[in-house]
Design goal:
- This protein has about 260 residues and is an alpha/beta fold.
- It has 2 domains: about 100 residues, P-loop containing nucleotide triphosphate hydrolases (Rossmann fold, 3-Layer(aba) Sandwich), CATH 3.40.50.300; about 150 residues, 3-Layer(aba) Sandwich (Rossmann fold), CATH 3.40.50.300.
- The protein has a 6-stranded mixed beta sheet with strand order 6-7-8-3-9-10, with helices on both faces.
- It is built from 11 helices and 10 strands.
- The protein is globular, with a radius of gyration of 18 Å.
- The chain is about 40% helix and about 25% strand.
- The two termini are about 35 Å apart.
- It binds adenosine-5'-diphosphate and magnesium ion.
- Magnesium ion binds next to α1.
- The site of magnesium ion (MG) has 3 residues, from α1.
- It comes from Pollutimonas bauzanensis.
Length: about 260
Amino acid sequence: MKPDLLHVQGLSRRFGGLVALRKLTFSVAQGEIVGLIGPNGAGKTTAFNVITGTIPPSAGTVRFDGRDISGGPPSRVVVAGLARTFQSASTYPAVSVAGNVYRGMLSRIAGSTVGRLVGRRGGMLAAAQVPAEIDAILRVTDLASWRDAPAGSLPYGLQKKLGIAVALATRPRMLLLDEPAAGLNHEECNDLARLLRLLRDEHGLTLLLVEHHMALVMELCQRIVVLVQGEKIAEGAPEDIRQNAAVIEAYLGAPDYAHA
Ligand SMILES: Nc1ncnc2c1ncn2[C@@H]1O[C@H](COP(=O)(O)OP(=O)(O)O)[C@@H](O)[C@H]1O
Ligand SMILES: [Mg+2]
């Protein structure tokens, strides 16, 4: 068995009287693609927010590569090698595609101890590698022909892909993706599946995928964790989850799932 890269233990998060996440425990092994699914409001985005240090947990721990990263801050989580994408397109619309990727690179440099210590010199040292690294990321994500276009001028599907490119610019070992297929057409969705598989197979990335598009989840993930009202109700291989009575009852059988 491969060692766990991410291990989440007893993670809880309250918002006032609402328990958005209740004692969530799961692991993701190095090189795995794991799905995190469940109805709207189940706590999936909250789980991402707590894991990446955007908000602190009410209880529980997050370990990444054996290190305790519970409670962030997000810059420390990024430097540890864990990056995320957001549910909505989160790029700077007036900034070029390359400029957005550069901002992702800066967040890595700014968050590292070395970057803080050497300040401007750190920026200049990194500057020598910047163009080549931006080009490499744009090649992988197939955005090279849009290099100088303002992010806001890209079709929606490509804006979401740029969100992945920005996350890749932090040189992560693991990527958390929050509904990357939402709003994508069939072709864009196939393209996304290809990219995610490439990132895992060719670039050694480990992926945690929140997604309602069940065909995509079932096709890509080795393992799926199911959240309902903040609690894990099931975990297993796609074929087991598909047939799990509790999962069908709480999520897969719901009318609003029928389109996926
Ligand atoms: N910052 C917040 N303040 C208050 N309640 C929140 C906050 N973020 C999320 N929630 C609530 O927590 C629950 C889980 O939300 P969320 O994690 O966004 O679910 P999902 O991503 O699975 O749709 C929802 O009831 C939501 O309204
Ligand atoms: Mg969400």
